[in-house]
Amino acid sequence: MADINVCTNEVGLIKLLVLPSVLQQKFLRYVHAVRKQKHEMPESARKLDTLFTRLQYRAFSGKLWSLS
């Protein structure tokens, strides 16, 4: 690896964009919502697989249209 030299005088000249706290909070809510969905997806997929398996069983056993 190459050595990296950073001059502290130059670091002080770097301008950072700081968004308003309202936008930061909005982004944080978005991140939390995405993480929640990501966590819930496997359970949802399992439920869909179960329902699809039941549907296939009924379809191929001739019980798809019976009410019992």
Compact summary:
By secondary structure, this protein is an all-alpha fold. Helix content is 66%, strand content 0%.
Word description of this protein:
The protein is built from two helices and no strands. The mean pLDDT is 89. The radius of gyration is 27 Å and the shape is elongated. It has 68 residues and is mostly helical.
Key structural traits:
mainly alpha, elongated, 2 helices, 68 residues
Any chance you could write out the topology, listing elements then pairs?
Blueprint (H helix, E strand, L loop, with lengths): L7 H4 L9 H41 L7
Low-pLDDT windows of residues = none
Shape estimate: elongated
Mean pLDDT: 89
Q: What Rg, in angstroms, do the CA atoms define?
A: 27 Å
The structure class reads mainly alpha
- Tell me the β content: under 5%
Please write the string of helix (H) and strand (E) elements: HH
Amino- and carboxy-terminal Cα gap = 70 Å
Amount of helix: 55-70%
* Major sheet attributes: none
